[in-house]
Predict the 3D structure of the following.
Amino acid sequence: MMKKWILYISVLSFILLQSCTAVKEFQKSRINDSEMELSSRKSEKFEQSFYLYREGASGANGGKSGGGCGCN
Amino acid sequence: MKKILVTIGLYCSLLHGAKAQEFLFYSRGAKNASVSKIDTGFLKRKIKFEEINLVSGYYLQDGNNSAITGGIGTEKLTDWANSFEMSVSKLDRFNRTHRLTADFNIDYYTSASSDKIDPLTISSASRKDTHIYPSLSWSVKDDVAGVTQGLSYAFSTEYDYVSHGINANLTKLSKNKNTEFSIKGGAFFDTYMCILPAELRSFTYPSGAERDTKGIDYKPRNSFNLSFSLSQVINQRLQVMAMIEPSFQEGLLSTPFHRVYFTNGNETVEKLPGTRFKLPIGLRFSYFAGDQTVIRLFYRAYLDDWGMKAHTANVEVPFKLTPFFSLSPFYRFNVQSAVDYFKPYAKHETKDAFYTSDYDISGFTSHFLGMGVRLATPGGILGITNFNSLEIRYGYYSRSTGMVGHSISAHIKIK
C-alpha cells in the first residue's frame, strides 16, 4: 500500500516539477504572502500537541514525530 | 612615561580605524540584516530584536475509553497551554545572519482518569500536572551561499518524566530562490518514572505519589528523528513541499499505569515492544486563487512497524476580507488502523505477547473542523506599532470512538 502511495506522490511531483516556471523575486508578491507559508501556523502549536497525544500517527507536519512529549 | 602614553594612544586610534574599515568592507551588499548607519557613515552591527510570539491555548476533551482503566472510563481532560517565544538576530562580519530563539512553554492540565491510577491516595501522578518545555535555538543564515544551519536544545518535564532533546538542521536555497532543500536530525532522551496502578504494585513498591518515590523504577525512552524536505515554487501562485520524516524509538514505549484486562478476568499493565519505527510522508500545497483566497492543503501518509497505517488530510481556505483581515475555515480528517497489539477492554488473551487497550492507537477516524480569524493592520493593531498581528482559532474535534474535544487558541505577534 505504501509503495502505491509513494508512486502516486512521485507521479504528482513529476507533473508539478514539469510545470515549474522560473519565478523572479519581484513576481513573488503572492508567494510571499503570510497565508502562503508552507508550514503550520504558530496558532496551531497546541493543536499539533493534542494530535500527537490523541492519534497514533505523527510527523511530517512541522510538529514532533516522537520523543520529548511523554507520548509514543 | 609620556612617550608610552602617546604610543598607546596612537596604537588604539590605529586599531579603531582598522575596525571601522572592516565594518565598511563587510557591510557592502548587506540588505536585510541587522545593520544601522552611525554618524560617521559607516555601518555598525548590533543585536536586532526580531519578534515575540505569544500563543495561548485551551483544550477540553471528554470520552469513555481511558487507557488507565483498561479501555473504559472517563477521558475527561483539560489543558491550558501558554508559549512565549522571542527571537533576536545579529549580522556577523561575513554578512551572515545569526538568529537566537528562546521558547518557553508551560501547560497546566487536569486529567480525570489519572485519579484512577491509585484511587485510594489520588496519586497526583498526572491528575493535575504542569508540563514545562523550554527550548533554545541558534541558526546562521548565509544569504550569498543560500545556506542556513542551526542547532537547538529542548528540555521537557512533567511529574513522571524528564526529557532532553538536541536537534541540528541544514537548509540550502537555490540561486533563483525557488527551490529549498532541508535536512534535520534530532534525538530525544527521556526518562520515565514507572508508576504502577495501586492493585498491581508489590507491597514494597512506592506509589509514585509525592514523598513516596524512593526506590521507584526509572526507565529510558530514546527517540531519533530525521527529516528531509523539498519545497518548490511552481509558479507565481503555487508552491509545494514534500517531507519525509523517519523516526525510531527505543526503550519503555508502553505506559506503566495503563491497565489491560484479559478475557479470563485477570488484570495487568500495558505491554508494548521496546522499539518502534515510524515513516510519515507529507505534502503541502499553498495556492493563491484570485486576489482574496488562498488554498492550503496538507496530506500525510503514515505507517509504522507496530502495524498502524494512517492518512491525514487538512484543507484550510484563508479568505481575505481586506488585505489585513482574513477568515480561515479549516477541516482536518484522519483515519488510522489499530496497532497489532490493540484490543478493547477484556478482549486480550493471556497468551498474547503484547497488549494495550489505549484507544489513541486503536483504529478510528477523526474530524477537526473550525475557523481562524487573523488581523494584521499596517501601523499595528490598536495603533500599537509593534503589535504586528493577532490570530484566534477555534476547532471542534471528534473521534469515531466517541471522544470529542474543543480547542481554542490565540496568537499575538510583536515585531
About this structure: Chain A touches chain B through 54 residues (CB under 8 Å). The helical segments of chain A are 2-18, 45-54. Residues 2-18 of chain A form the longest helix (17 residues).
